[in-house]
Specification:
This protein is α/β, with parallel strands linked by helices and 242 residues long. 40% of the residues lie in helices and 21% in strands.
Amino acid sequence: MNDDAPTSSTAAREAENVRDRYARRDGARDANRYSLSDPYALAVWQERQRKMLRMLAEKGLRDLGALDVLDLGCGSGGNLLDLLRLGVAPDRLQGIELLAERAEAARAVLPASCSIWNADALTLDIPAQSQDVIVLFTVFSSILSDTVQQQIADQAWRWLRPGGVVLWHDFVYDNPRNPDVRAVPLTRVRALFPEAHVRSERITLAPPLGRAACRMSPALYPLLNAIPLLRTHVLCTLAKPL
């Protein structure tokens, strides 16, 4: 863990580092690997959607059209499109994305009434307690500064209404082939959000195994994923007390 001091320069430096990491990653990644036409990507997405909806319903958040939702680290808008399909109203849906090209891609596929901010989340003046759901999907694993992780967690918590939830999804094992990311175990999630009521579930069959299995038959995904030790991610609702 890093022990950098909580300064604005630390946050600015980490934001620039994140931009550099994503530029390297985007240059090397195979976009088709993450397309829903890929059997493994489709199985992962379907599993996450089902469990996400169930966990939100458990918190009483069933009518998504009545909620204000913010996706922090929205990328090119994939999660925002999912949320629209699930019933979130476009004018109650916002996304924040640090990388300009990804923010532009999100704007290109989303309704104009959906607000997309190309900004560092720490610089935005969003009203406190204005959001019912804040989505944090594979965001913190790309932030290598402990201090900046905590600053962003505090910011998200400030924006969340009492009774609302942070919807969290990230991986819990380090990838030795990718030094630009690091795992975020559940103990770290709890430390970042110490006031939250946490409901968590391990999901997602390990990517190398899952991709190999799905090439043989997509039916192998649920069979192998039934073994908890083979799941690499955690999905959480982090509820803010009333």
